[in-house]
Amino acid sequence: MTPLAPLWMSILLGACAQVFLRRGVAGFEGSYFQLLRSVWVWAWGLCFLIATVLWMMAISAMQVSYAFPLLSIGYVIVAVLSMVFLKERIPAYRWAAIVVIALGVAIIFRTA
Amino acid sequence: MRIAHYFFAPAAIAGLAIYGTGTLLWIYAVSQRSISFLYPLTALTYVMVALGGKFLFAENISSERWLGIGVVVLGVAMLHLSAKGEKA
């Protein structure tokens, strides 16, 4: 298995995790302990854990200057998933902002 | 194994504690604002790591990296503009 597979799986799972978290805690006003009752919070925890393990597998076998900028694809995936799954409105300016941020991250890591 | 020895190093424990606190704060943030707005914001982590390296470890930041930092900050500003008036 090339390091690319765990990398992409990690990015995808991480994006799903964030969307699950939002689904589970949006507008929540209880205590942190009560969060443990939410199935979405558990989904977030599980996906986050697996994503982290996959990320460590990937990063141990590839250049940081390549892996970290690719994380920015996660911003796009989260935006798309939040549109579809959470009915979030994504203004044009937000897509543009994501592109600019991804560009900035790529520049930062170009010489890492 | 010597490596187990490092799990108890103060820096490792402090790092874990800070990360845990950060996660709790993140959960609170996600309860308040949309995730398509918050998640790209985490790119600021790389900016803070670069600045932290410079001020804590005297690491040099190349002009190219400064450019990248500037572009990320610009993108973050645009991100905030895209969220003006969003349920605060």
Task: List the keywords.
heterodimer; A: 112 residues; mainly alpha; 5 helices; B: 88 residues; 80% helix; flat
Provide a quick synopsis of the model:
The complex is a heterodimer of chains A (112) and B (88). Chain A is mainly alpha-helical and 112 residues long. Chain A is built from five helices and no strands.
Characterise this structure.
The complex is a heterodimer of chains A (about 110) and B (about 90). Chain A has helices spanning about 5-25, 40-60, 65-70, 75-85, 90-110. Helix content of chain A is about 75%, strand content about 0%. The two termini of chain A are about 25 Å apart. In chain A, helix 1 packs antiparallel against helix 2, helix 1 (about 5-25) crosses helix 4 (about 75-85) and helix 3 runs antiparallel to helix 5 (about 90-110). By secondary structure, chain A is mostly helical. Chain A contains 5 helices and no strands. The model of chain A has no long low-confidence stretch (mean pLDDT about 95). Chain B is mainly alpha-helical and about 90 residues long. Chain B is built from 5 helices and no strands. Chain B has helices at about 1-5, 10-30, 35-40, 45-55, 65-80. The longest helix of chain B has 23 residues, at about 10-30. Chain B is flat and about 55 Å long. The mean pLDDT of chain B is about 95. The interface between A and B is large, with 42 and 32 residues.
